[in-house]
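Input record (Table S2, row 167):
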Amino acid sequence: ALAAAIEPKIVMVGFMGAGKTTVGRALASWLGRPFVDTDELIAASAGRSIAEIFAEDGEQFFRRLEAEAIIEVLTGAPAVVSLGGGAVGTRAVREALTGHRVVFLDVGYDEALARVGADSGRPVLARPDLPELYAARQQLYREVATVTVPSTGEPGQTHQELADQLT
Ligand code: S3P
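Output record (shikimate-3-phosphate complex):
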């Protein structure tokens, strides 16, 4: 009965550089719904950037804040929600996604890196096992997705394909 009371959200998942924020924002305005970026939410409520949270308190701490923020947003008002690329690594997040429309923006590894560049705001980019992390996450994105859209170089085209699939 509790689950039935939760409004399904449209949730964007995918690796860093997949275009979750860009495409999610376009989709939200097209649908006339609010757009929520959970990374922005976490940074705002912590009063620190994501990079600062990682540097000062570590990744595990960030993952707890992240899971709490996501669960709160998913049980709140209708919205298009963009998750950080690593959120699906947390079991509680994967479970909370059940019943929502989860859009996997599928970007190739090289394309993803080319798009984000050496952005210091993304501490996970410095990990030596980044290719393995990418591969492991692709599995998780597929697992939680209800819709998969290739993320091409052109956000407008990705948005159009997604709009077609969601209507
Ligand atoms: C992360 C991705 C980031 C942000 C944090 C960790 C990751 O979000 O949540 O830096 O583990 O891949 P984006 O996917 O929006 O860059």
